[in-house]
Amino acid sequence: MSDEGGEGRGGNLAALGLIQVFRMGSGLAVNVMVMRGLGVEGFGVYGYVTTLAGLASFGSSMGMDRLLKREISRDEGRAGHYVATGLAASVLLSLATALGVAGWAACVDGRADVVVAAVLASVALGLQSLALVPVSAFHAIRRMGLGVRGNFAGRVTLVVATAAFLWLQFGVRSVFSAQVLDGAVTLGIVGWVYARVLGVTTLKTSWPEVRALIRESVPFGLNALFVSIYLSVDVLILGVATNDHEVGVYRGAVMLLALFPVVADTLSTGIYPRMARHLGHIDRAGEELRFATRILLAVSVPAAVGGMLTAEPLMVFLGGSEFAESALPFIVMAPLLPLRFLNNGYGMTLSALNRQDDRTRGAVYAAILNVAVNLYAIPAYGALGAAGTTLLTEVALAIFMRWRIASLVSGLGLASTVLRVAVPAAAMAGALLLLPAVHVLVAIALGVAVYGVGSYATGAWHPRDLRRLRSV
């Protein structure tokens, strides 16, 4: 293997961080452009199609990237075999998913714009699923920097193309055309990097191996499906039971809450290969998860508290005065952020330690609970009902997953971690409540400063944590 373009055995979290910054920044930029360019109803249509594609995303990859990371991290010599098999499987799965998405849009909605947008979204989804396969190999061999170039170029393409298409008033369909361009650029560059650095001579597979990989991916795929259901079904029910305006209000509220967990995903993805090598070592796995939990809560708790206290000006700043009514659903859902971060860490642990079935069962239970409650809450309370149901689901999932990891790791020390984070978060809340009327970005900056000093004083974080993060 050549060393070109990649990280060594450290610095991987920095590379992942860059990729997630691109994802968060571009995702936020696109959402804001659509909110301001198409208004609440146009944003509702965009949100409906995005949710439909997201719900079907499990089918295009069956969660195969996590399986590939786990297996390659344990046997790097078979990386080429797994990548070739994963690419072949992803092509088949993506084609089937595209047909399903297009069929749903045509039969259930029927509007021409929605059908075309759904087709474009499913094509973009397939391209991104293909790109995930070689990126999974980069992660497994702990050279995560190899994926930065493709992700950066793809996300720049997405933002520039979206801005141009909306400026030309091409409508909501054009936003999904920009996503197709993003997927094509990302896949092209990631494939080129893989060929140059890891080589293509080992890319060999067979039909029986493809079928075997798909079968082995089923628990991962089911987990992705049911996670998609409990994260996305509320938007679909809102679309059927209410109108585009209500969907737009809810999507405005959920936008940041959907983007921010990529921070948790960055840490979990970086730790995942290392956690997989702790199979059977309860103390090592427990220490790894304690570290992850400390970082996850140190970031998510202040974000939730600050978000609740700045909700209305933040929504207006991002989307305009039309989105002021998104503030109340946002406040209801903000407390789920620490829970979602914890669930990300717990789920990573279950997958890495060969307990994917438990993770999938948790997602199934969460999906059933979410759908059942939403069928009552959304017709009765609209976007606010959907927000409350989402919070309830996340609480139930956290309880289940904490129970299932108990036998896999040593003690988590969760109570002491929460206390160290809660005190500076309360100080930040007090500062924000006493603050005179200022721009929302000034308020956020002040809150970050107060929390940063306070959390260092209470031990919520320490400079050695930063050194350890750099070593991932």
Question: Describe it for me?
Answer:
The protein is mostly helical and 472 residues long. The protein folds into two domains: 1-205, no CATH class; 223-472, no CATH class. The chain contains 18 helices and no strands. Helix 1 (12-61) packs across helix 3 (79-109) and helix 2 packs parallel to helix 9. It is globular. The two termini are 21 Å apart. The model is unreliable at 1-10 (pLDDT under 50).
Shape: globular
Radius of gyration: 22 Å
* Low-pLDDT stretches: 1-10
Number of strands: 0
- Quaternary structure of the protein: single chain
Order of secondary-structure elements = HHHHHHHHHHHHHHHHHH
How many H/I helices? Answer: 18
Mean pLDDT: 84
Strand content: under 5%
Short description:
The chain has 472 residues and is mainly α. It has 18 helices and no strands. The protein has 2 domains: 205 residues, no CATH class; 250 residues, no CATH class.
How is the secondary structure organized here?
Elements lengths: L11 H50 L2 H11 L4 H31 L2 H29 L7 H20 L4 H26 L9 H35 L2 H16 L2 H15 L5 H28 L1 H9 L7 H7 L2 H17 L3 H26 L1 H23 L8 H21 L5 H19 L4 H9 L1
List keywords for this structure.
472 residues; mainly alpha; 2 domains; disordered N terminus
